[in-house]
Amino acid sequence: MAVAGIFGVSALLAIVLWWPDLRLVGEGFLVAFLVPALIAGYATPALARALGGRLELRRSVFLALIVLLLELPIALVWRGALMIWPNQTPGVVFLGAFLAGPAIWFREMSVFGLSRASHSRSLPAALIQPLLGLVGLFVLAPPSLRVLVATVFFLAIGFLCAVALLRAADRPLRREFQSSGISLIRPLLDHVGARDPSATRALEAFFEKFSFPADLRISLLAFAREGKIRATVALPTVHPGPFAALGASDLPRKLAQRLGPDAGTVLVPHTPSDHDLDLPNEAEVEKVGNAGRDLLHALGAPVEARGSPLVSPYAGSFARAQLFGDVALVLMTQAPAPTDDIAFSVGDRIDRELGRDGTQRLALVDAHNSYIEGKGDITYGTSTAEKLVADVRAAIAAARAASAPGPIEVGIASRATYDIGTNGIGPQGIQALAVRAGGRTAGYVLIDGNNLVVGFRDPIVRALERVVDDAEILTTDNHVVHEVDGGINPIGERLSLDALTREATEVLERAKADLAPAETFFGTKPVPGVQVLGPGFTARLLTSLGDTLSMFTNMATATFLLLLTSSLVVTFALK
Description:
By secondary structure, this protein is of the alpha+beta class. It folds into 2 domains: 2-188 and 543-574, no CATH class; 212-532, no CATH class. The chain has helices spanning 2-18, 22-50, 57-84, 92-98, 100-114, 119-140, 145-177, 185-194, 197-208, 251-259, 282-296, 344-354, 383-402, 420-423, 457-464, 497-513, 537-574, and strands at residues 212-225, 228-236, 265-267, 306-307, 319-324, 327-332, 361-366, 404-405, 408-415, 430-437, 440-447, 470-475, 516-532. The strands form 3 sheets. The chain has an 8-stranded mixed β-sheet. Strands 5-6-7 form a 3-stranded mixed β-sheet, covered by helices on one side. Strands 4-8 form a two-stranded antiparallel sheet. Helix 3 (57-84) packs antiparallel against helix 5 (100-114) and helix 8 packs across helix 9 (197-208).
């Protein structure tokens, strides 16, 4: 498609410059535009590699096309001026040379960002297209000394304007983090596109510089049948970010791999945590995973064979609970209102006040199932946090009241045939846990993704409750889904409500069919000294990225206008 565009735009440029001379139109089409663009498109990747950078062929060809598209309106305006004021407007040779300035401006900033953040390494690759275009132009129309001098100025002005743009755009991140944001573009592309290990290390090295140690913990709620664990609900106090597969992002898959087959099917719902508890690198995830694996093999005796249904204490409660012996599984959501991250401090307060009295242990889950951008967080000290604490207390009391001795049955099922770009669902797909206790069957459906489109939770839960008595739909908050177009990419943005409902119901039906008596195990293990990004880092980073985008937009316009103005001054001074 890009190659076809190069043919088309090259033809238009040749027509604009040399019409009605058909011979010159044909020759100019080939030697001044088409051949230089194609050579640049196909040769730039090899030259970039030779200079220590990297530029994919498709990006290189597309870059060559964009340069031609940038030149076309300039040529149209110039040719129009030549028709209206033929005596005052410099001729076609000056116009062709003039176009080299915008070409080097755009190519230099692009190759610098996409290939190698070094002007000495990016400039040779950036020069291919404008220099070959100039050679073709001068073959058709041998230049005068004035044109040659002007050409040098055009190229120099274009390059300097590109340098000014790049330095200005890099300033916000350099000021806040003492690091070049532009130098991270290439590693980011390689990490997202190919999971390149060296690119991942470069990005995680950036995060590591701003992390500090925190004392975390991991809890496991495991269900065993016939002496073998069939399912494990893993609850680390870790936020599954920051982005793509960096650090703790893609945590559900990473933790399942580290717990291994002994854990059965591993479910990693979101726990009370926010971006303060993002982990900067794989090594820190390994610490949490190792602690989880040690805990799994040291869970000890099963809990008492006593359970309750999944209960809500009253209409409008933010919390529901189900008891397994002395363990309360607590689900927290503000749905149908927006519900997002519950701060770790709020969850820690709940655990300290309600779960450490020696009679009750807590497994806290942030359902994270009703997304509206910028809304739904629960922070410490707010009236919403106070209501949540009260509702959790009431939910646990209601579960205790409804509990009864007797066996607990558990069934598990999953479906992992999803694509992030197509479905907005991460690699763990949809998992369902069915639990029969206290005379009722509860169904927990966990979707590997970042929240659920607001309004989707209630109709899905109603559909699930045609399969089981009580149900809840949860998301993992996995930030791996951010790496596709659309950013946040909440579940339901790429997969319809009908499709989600149908597939969640199908997985839960299979989990219900798998119900069989099971023993329940629970344990918690501290994980001290884990590096986290900490308070304010994400806000600082997002603010700096926003400033970078704003600066780039403003400076792109400013430097382009400066380029055109300065080049016109040179043109009229030397024509």
